[in-house]
């Protein structure tokens, strides 16, 4: 299976008025075809990277590809190449990638704002995604079971998982400890700043 590579597409064919054929010397018989070569992933175009040319004479039927163009044709063909824009669709994969990155940035900023708001005003039922340190790949959960002024009572989930969004698999009543402990909002903020508290989910209001 081909995951990535490059392909070519025809962009335009144009006459070369007033240019003599290098082989038969006929004028107004030359045509140039311009192509676009583009990189692709799973056949989705990413970006164009070259504009190969081919020239042909309708009188003597001689033709020349991009690597064997006569010197007399190079200047007029260069002008055609400079005047030709690559099809926008050959950039479609790059455009999709940029849109995806933009969406991820917006979603990440929104999630950060929600996390800060939830930590500032905790509710019973809030669930904190936590890990031992900022480079730990294993995550677990803390569930808020009580709010007392600047302090919250939480119960720890007794399981860890190699997934930065463990709530779907770990948030079950029988997976939490029966013993609660207290954390101040200041301590929670420190955990967030250190990358130990990575997300806050509010499933209950």
What does this structure look like?
- The structure is a single chain.
- The chain contains four helices and ten strands; from the N terminus they run E-E-E-E-E-H-H-E-E-E-H-E-H-E.
- The protein has 205 residues and is of the alpha+beta class.
- The protein folds into two domains: 92 residues, no CATH class; 93 residues, Roll (SH3 type barrels), CATH 2.30.30.
- Strands 1, 2, 3, 4 and 5 form a five-stranded antiparallel beta sheet that branches.
- A hairpin with a 2-residue loop joins strand 7 and strand 8.
- The longest helix is centred in the middle third of the chain and has 29 residues.
- The model has no long low-confidence stretch (mean pLDDT 93).
What's the short story on this structure?
It comes from Hymenobacter ruricola. With 205 residues, the protein is of the alpha+beta class. The chain has helices spanning 71-82, 92-120, 167-170, 185-193; strands at residues 4-15, 30-41, 44-50, 53-57, 63-64, 126-130, 140-148, 151-157, 176-184, 197-202.
Describe the structure using short key phrases.
single chain, 205 residues, alpha+beta, SH3 type barrels, 2 domains, 5-stranded antiparallel sheet
